[in-house]
Every structure is written in structure tokens, then in C-alpha cells.
Structures
1.
Amino acid sequence: MTGTLQRPPAVTGEHSCWLPRHRKSAGRARRQLRDFLAGLDGGEQYADTGELLLSELVANAVEHARVPPGRLIQVRFELSPAVLRIEVHDANARHPKPCSVSEDGEDGRGLWLVQQLSADWGCHPRPGGIGKAVWCLISPTRRSAV
């Protein structure tokens, strides 16, 4: 054999947890992400942007997803050798849309930040369940114009 067998990059690690739809859940999700990344080689290079975008996605799920009381949100992280994938699942099927933001506006910047700071992002229906998953990909080489 003259060459080496090339395999696709394996997943370095993944983690998921359920959180209440409460404004304190963004902080809990950030702690989960910090702990997850701290246990992985190279994880620290994703921490700052990951925590910011995770906070925005969790805040959207808490503030804008109109669902019956008691519904939970799920956060999921997956780190491969080149990208961190963050997903936030909620029970509302309505897909988020970035809105226009004025200079003086105090809200509405969450998805704009996700667009600017992630390598890619999107939303899809939850497989086998109700609601949606909003996701973003964070690359350590991504540079933003923000």
C-alpha cells in the first residue's frame, strides 16, 4: 500500500441538555458550553464567540417562542476538528427572521450577530418532534466585520 487511508474528521465531542424557558437559562447554557469546551483540545478558541451566539439563540427561544407553559428548550454542542456547531431547540415551529435594527434600538440584534459572527446559520424543523432547531457554525478562522 503506497498511501494512507483518508478518513473524514471524527467528531471530537458533543453534549446536549434541557433547560427551562427562563431568562436565566442563557447563563446556564453558557456554563454548559464553557465546561464542554474546557474538556476538549482546542476548545478555548471557540469559547468567546460560542458563548455570545449561544446566549442570543437561547434568548430568542425564551423570549419569542410562544409555547404552552412548562415546555423546555434543548441546547446541543458538537465540536469537530474545524467547527463548533451550536443548536437551540424549542417547541415553536415559527422560524426566526433577522429584523432591521436602528442605531438607537435596544433589541433586535441577536440574529444579526449570529449572521455576522458565524460561518453559517439556519433553522430546520425538529426531526420527529414539534418545533424547530436554530443552529450556527463557529469556525476559529472566521473574521467578522463587526
Note: The longest strand covers residues 13-20.
2.
Amino acid sequence: MGSTRYRDAVILQVGNKAGGTSLRYDLGGRYTRLLATAGLGDEAPTDTVVTLSLAVDGKTVMERRIGVGQTVPVSIAITGGARLEITAKAPGADCCVSVGLADPVLT
């Protein structure tokens, strides 16, 4: 992402036929914050823009549009949350754009 290698990442694959993709994680109320760096895989076409949304218990806590070469710091409060949902949408993307949350940490 952004020409930087990261040790760990949660990756979502998104393209226009699926309309978007989501991952859900059970938090069990055990965490207070999610820290990560979000971005697109370097293989994405230059004009690709993805909307990344993070929701806790159905409430959107972060939504950002991310383009190629951009990275976005993620620091969201999740105190007491039961479920985290990560959604990526890339309208107009031809195929299989990788969207990552790099070096994610739950505290």
C-alpha cells in the first residue's frame, strides 16, 4: 500500500460486480480501540477510488474515500462494542481491487 510493505494486514477484495464486500468480527466487548493503516493494493488501476467504512454494532464510526497511493490512519473507539464490520465498495472498479487494513491492533 502506498509503496510500503506491512508485516500484517486484513485484506478485502472488491470489484464492481459484487458491489462491495464486508468482514465482520466478534469483539465481545473486550476492546477499546482499533488502530491500523488503510489503503489500496499497489496493483489497483490509477483511477480507482474505494469507500472504506467501519461500523461498530451497526453504527458507522469511520468512512473514507481512498485512492491509489493514499494511506489513511485508522484510530476508532470501539469500547464495549460487540461487533465490528469493515466494508469496502469500489463502484466502477473492473476487478479485484485489494483494500487493506495494515498492521491492525485491537487494544
Note: Residues 36 and 56 are 16 Å apart (CA to CA).
3.
Amino acid sequence: MRTWLRWMAFCTLWTCSLGAQADLYKDVSTLVQSGQWAQAQALAQARLKTAPTDPQMRLLQSHIQTGMGQTQAAMDTLRDLTQSFPELPEPHNNLAALLVRENRPDEALAALQAAIRARPDYALALENLGDLHLAMAAQAFARARLVAPTPTRLQTKQEGAERVMRTP
């Protein structure tokens, strides 16, 4: 009987702690969405002190760092996360987005390919890969126009790629 009561108490406490963790992620996400970076950072750091390898909180931490203008710190967090959990596609995808902003398309391409290797059906990474290829194509057409004797065809291609990129 005592063993059963202990087991029930353990299950109850464990279930409550899972609920508290879920609330913590929700709370941090809500703070991030509302731009309350300092409060989100405080909650995330408190969680990471007790669970430094928590992938979900580390991913949220990278969002916080990005929101606070700490792009390099966010990229470092995401790189560390991809090293610890290479099977998670989201950190690779988010790292690629930051790399594109930093005008580092080759590294972004590698990160997106890693995201797709991790999850071949990850639609957002596939879309981002398409966007990156379009941007790279537009840049290549623009460079070709500088050296081509008759750039009309290249101009049409460049404008077409740029038009597709502007489409929401």
C-alpha cells in the first residue's frame, strides 16, 4: 500500500512539473512575441541554469538574443544547438535565416541543407531554400549583366527572380 501511495505521489508531482515546464515555455514565448526581451531572457536563463541542455529553451534563447540585437550570440547559440542536437531541423533553419541577414549565403545554404537532411519534409526549410536559390540567381544575373554585351535577356531573368521574391 505504501509503495502504491509513493508511486501515486511521484506521478502527481511529475505530472505537475511537466505542466509547470509547459507553462514556462509558453510564458517565455509570450514575452518574446510581445517584445519583452529582458523578462524573457530572465526566465530563459533561470531555466537554462537548471537544465543547460534543454533544446527548446535554447532555441527560445536564440530568439531572445536576436530580438535584443545580439545576432552573433544568437548564431553561436544555434550553432551549439545544432552540434548538440543535429537531428533537430529548426536550429539549422533559424541559423540559415540569420546567416542570410548577415549576407553569408553559402553558409546559409549549408545550414538549410542540414535542416532538410534532418527532416526532409520540413516545409519552411524547403521554402527558405527556394528563396535563397532565387536570391542567389538574381545576384548571378545582375553580375552577368555587368559583363554581358547584350544584357536584355539577363535583365528579364533578374527582374523575374526579383518579382517572385517580392511575392508574399
Note: The radius of gyration is 22 Å.
